[in-house]
Design brief:
single chain; about 525 residues; alpha+beta; eight-stranded antiparallel sheet; six-stranded antiparallel sheet; 14 helices; about 25% strand; globular
Length: about 525
């Protein structure tokens, strides 16, 4: 039996997030080191009807890896090798490169994003998706359709997934290849390696036309690999992933400070025409030139950054907002355009490329530190709205900031901080609570923001997934988080899950409550 360990554990709650419940579930952890080990564990659990939770690097923010019921936890970080395959060249234990297409690779699902990118450097390859947490595994990224700053120009994880090996709830294996299996309208039919057929119907709901990581993708005639990407482990566990890479080019990031949010937004709008066009890249290298990412930091974020000694003097005292811009380092024409716009719009100063990365990650880390020191939970949004409606959403964010009000104990304390992916109309608004009263108010304001984002045609989760999150409505009734986006149509997800997992053992309570599985 290919297990690296077999140990009992107690349940836990992902640090810094309080939107999903605590758990006292007892479970056993197994850590397979190859696909057959995953399948063996699943077969045993399926036979006994034991709930299974798939976990990896535990970097998620929605409780997906938190078992709420006693059972088995399968740790997928042991999947750090891929077997030999005809037509593929081995470049590391966890990575094969196609002999016919050097831009494609087969990757072990348990490998971290950082490990993959370090390996690709030696082969002048680049994996564009850039979620903020480099410790996250590739399998975890695919399970949530992770994204980040470069989604603006180069798309999310889904755009780079070419194949999947999926261990189903009963231990059978499904192999998905992009461009091979399509839905017939909303009907789907898939066959496992053992020859078993799975047939069902895609949900009838419509997802918002924005950057989105909430719910199963479901469109008539869709490529069925996309049903599994972003499925948060409810349909199966990924063991091996085929990815598409791009030629590597060094990236330059720079942060520009402005006196107000309106000035910062004017700068960002002036740069939108310079957005990189990834459609023709890499066949036409110059088509990759342009802006890769447009990131925003508000006044609260800048105040938090000043608390770090490295940035105390770097952030101008009069700065009210900042924009981070990423381009390829060998693209001087775009950089000239950026600098001309910065000068015209009275930029107050910059943080150079060598410090920009530390600044970007330092702000959210500082929020996490403050909340940990205070023993407070994290209330942070992950909404995206259509760009034409973003000014309305931004005005509503600022109204909620005002309603949250100043600190009652320290007039200089930062109460809210907003940062994120301005290029996609996708910000993270964080309420920095001090006590239980703040928590109650933050929950009320969070609900208002959820309602507003959906009203504007946006999503409640643009990149984190929904996991086990629930949220009480105005009357105190608790609902699955997806209910706020899809209404009662979210229950259709249970019917899809029942096709591949009729006993409902896999990653229970992700996306849909366990009781909905019984109704399906």
């Amino acid at each position: 039996m290919s297990y690296a360990s077999h140990m009992p554990h107690h349940g836990y709650t992902d640090a810094g997030n309080a939107v999903f419940p605590d758990t006292t579930a007892q479970f056993t952890t197994v850590r397979p080191i190859e696909e057959e080990g995953v399948c063996t564990a699943l077969r045993a659990a399926h036979s006994a009807g034991t709930p299974v939770t798939g976990v990896a690097a535990l970097t998620g923010l929605t409780g997906s890896a938190v078992p709420l019921e006693s059972g088995v936890r399968i740790d997928l970080t042991g999947l750090d090798t891929v077997p030999d395959c005809v037509g593929w060249r081995r470049v590391s234990p966890f990575l094969l490169i196609s002999e016919s297409d050097p831009m494609q690779g087969l990757v072990a699902a348990g490998i971290s994003l950082q490990t993959l990118n370090e390996s690709l450097l030696a082969h002048d390859l680049w994996y564009p998706p850039h979620p903020g947490e480099v410790r996250a595994t590739i399998g975890g990224n695919v399970s949530t359709n992770a994204s980040g700053p470069r989604t603006y120009a180069f798309g999310d994880t889904r755009a780079y997934v070419e194949s999947l090996r999926v261990a189903l709830a009963d231990g059978d294996v499904l192999v998905l290849q992009r461009g091979r299996d399509f839905a017939a309208g909303r009907a789907f039919r898939l066959q496992t390696e053992s020859g078993r057929l799975f047939e069902g119907r895609l949900p009838d709901y419509s997802l918002p036309q924005v950057k989105n990581a909430a719910g199963l993708m479901a469109t008539p005639g869709m490529d069925l690999i996309d049903l599994f990407i972003g499925s948060e482990g409810i349909l199966g566990l990924f063991t091996e992933i085929g990815l598409r890479f791009l030629p590597r080019r060094a990236i330059r990031s720079e942060i520009f400070f402005f006196g107000s949010t309106s000035e910062a937004f004017a700068f960002a709008e002036a740069l939108r025409p310079l957005k990189a066009d990834h459609g023709g890249y890499p066949q036409h290298r110059e088509s990759g030139d342009g802006i890769l990412a447009l990131e925003y930091f508000d006044y609260g974020s800048l105040a938090l950054a000043r608390e770090a000694e490295a940035f105390r003097d770097a952030v101008p005292v009069s700065a009210g907002a900042a924009i981070e811009v990423e381009i390829f380092a060998d693209d001087p024409e775009t950089r000239v355009g950026i600098l001309l716009s910065a000068e015209r719009l009275q930029c107050l100063g910059t943080i150079p490329p060598e410090q920009a990365g530390a600044f970007r990650v330092g702000v959210p880390r500082r929020v996490a530190e403050i909340l940990k020191e205070r023993g407070q939970p994290k209330y942070g949004t992950d909404f995206a709205v259509p760009l034409k409606r973003f000014p309305e959403m931004m005005a509503y964010y600022e109204a909620m900031d005002f309603e949250f009000g100043p600190s009652r104990g320290n007039s200089n304390a930062v109460r809210t901080a907003k940062w994120g992916h301005l290029g996609d109309g996708h910000l993270h608004c964080n309420f920095i609570c001090e006590n239980a009263e703040d928590q109650a108010l933050a929950r009320q304001l969070y609900l208002k923001l959820v309602r507003k984002a959906v009203f504007l045609g946006g999503t409640i989760s643009a990149e984190h997934g929904v996991g086990k999150k629930t949220l009480a409505d105005e009357q105190g009734n608790l609902h699955p988080y997806l209910w706020y986006l899809l209404g009662e149509e979210y229950r259709q997800i249970a019917k899809v899950k029942a096709v591949f997992d009729p006993k409902g053992i896999l990653n229970r309570n992700n996306m849909i409550p366990a009781e909905d599985l019984l109704r399906s």
